[in-house]
């Protein structure tokens, strides 16, 4: 059986105490980071985690809000983190809603196995595979030159 939430919480606080750190759980929506979004028409709050499909969740939620007016290419979704979702970021809109509205919203996040997340990030940002971007060519070349001694 997995450990209970109470046990995990107690271990967390013991560790924090041992390290001399104090943890205060967040209690204000205004303190949420830029990756937390609120979609009022569907009464949903979503906190995105990179490399867990958050772009696709944002597209789905924007669609549910009736805010998408174009077909979405599943391979080119980075645009969704800009203008389309910007106004839904909780730190841009928390003052517009009474706290009880936010407290009653359905809230979720998505997590992923950290190893597959790491591979996905590598394939998107660094790999030279044609289907996987290679957005950070300079990083790939730097890694190759330092680890393998390759210079060109």
Number of helices: 7
Shape: flat
Rg from alpha-carbon coordinates: 20 Å
Q: Segments where pLDDT lies below 50 for 5+ residues?
A: none
Q: Quick one: biggest sheet?
A: 3 strands, mixed
Which class best fits the helix and strand makeup? mainly alpha
Strand count? 3
Q: Strand share of the residues?
A: 5-15%
Strand order of the largest sheet: 1-2-3
Write structural notes for this entry.
The chain is mainly α and 152 residues long. Helices cover 41% and strands 8% of the residues. It contains seven helices and three strands. The protein has helices at 5-18, 54-64, 83-86, 90-93, 99-104, 114-125, 137-148; strands at residues 36-39, 44-47, 106-109. A three-stranded mixed beta sheet has the order 1-2-3. Strand 1 (36-39) and strand 2 (44-47) form a beta hairpin. 11% of the residues are buried.
Short account of what is shown:
It is built from seven helices and three strands; from the N terminus they run αββααααβαα. The chain has helices at residues 5-18, 54-64, 83-86, 90-93, 99-104, 114-125, 137-148, and strands at residues 36-39, 44-47, 106-109.
């Amino acid at each position: 059986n997995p450990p209970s939430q109470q046990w995990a919480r107690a271990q967390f606080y013991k560790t924090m105490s041992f390290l001399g750190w104090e943890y205060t759980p967040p209690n204000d929506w205004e303190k949420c980071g830029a990756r937390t979004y609120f979609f009022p028409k569907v009464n949903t709050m979503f906190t995105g985690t990179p490399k867990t499909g958050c772009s696709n969740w944002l597209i789905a939620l924007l669609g549910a809000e009736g805010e998408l007016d174009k077909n979405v290419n599943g391979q080119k979704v980075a645009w969704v983190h800009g203008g389309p979702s910007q106004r839904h970021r909780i730190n841009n809109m928390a003052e517009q809603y009474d706290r009880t509205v936010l407290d009653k919203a359905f809230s979720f996040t998505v997590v992923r196995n950290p190893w597959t997340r790491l591979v996905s990030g590598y394939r998107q940002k660094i790999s030279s595979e044609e289907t996987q971007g290679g957005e950070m060519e300079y990083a790939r070349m730097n890694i190759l030159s330092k680890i393998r001694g390759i210079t060109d």
